[in-house]
């Protein structure tokens, strides 16, 4: 899943970006509040990690601005401020969770997965559709109880479609969900990954809506 990281400390930001990428996230990284607000308004991120102490525009002001603009993605506040007052201010401004520096990467990743899951109305850790189970934490997929080996991009595409089960997503929307800044995207990349997923998981799971995009079917024959 694609997330926005807003952190002005170069060393910490580089470490967070690298760590989150290793754990399966696509990460766009910005270093000031104005850039964070622009990115959040313009891109369909699954979630954001937002430092409170940003230059140009404070993290709380960024959060208030995007919530006023009806940007509804989950926001996890990252802060060195350990006072209860600062945490309360962040939550009241529209944050969904917070982590205090120094950050444990596994905890940060788990909190992000939980926020994204809840934002899509998913009560369980794993996602289910027909006879396919996807475990985001383990980055594992099973079909009828048997493990299925997927590439990183195949897994990310399946995860996105399962989070939006029943909703038609265009190729452009899928590309925006899957690829962070600076990643080159082949013109037929989504079609190729869908073809490979169908070969591994069956043709009934992902349906083509001609001229529109793709939809993952929750149950056989129904969106």
Distinct helical segment count: 8
Mean pLDDT over the full residue set: 91
Name the helix and strand elements from N-terminus to C-terminus, one letter apiece: EHEHEHEHEHEEEEHHHEE
Poorly predicted residue ranges: none
Biggest pleated-sheet summary: 5 strands, parallel
Strand content: 15-25%
How helix-rich are the residues, as a percent range? 40-55%
Class by alpha and beta content = alpha/beta
| N→C terminal distance | 22 Å
Overall number of strands = 11
Spatial strand sequence of the major β-sheet = 2-1-3-4-5
Radius of gyration: 18 Å
Form type: elongated
Explain what this protein looks like in three dimensions.
The chain is α/β, with parallel strands linked by helices and 223 residues long. The protein has helices spanning 10-22, 33-42, 59-68, 84-92, 105-119, 152-163, 171-178, 189-201, and strands at 2-6, 26-30, 47-51, 75-79, 97-100, 127-129, 132-135, 140-143, 146-148, 206-209, 213-216. A five-stranded parallel β-sheet has the order 2-1-3-4-5, with helices on both faces. Strand 4, helix 4 (84-92) and strand 5 (97-100) form a beta-alpha-beta unit. Helix 2 runs parallel beside helix 3 and helix 6 packs across helix 8 (189-201). The two termini are 22 Å apart. The model has no long low-confidence stretch (mean pLDDT 91).
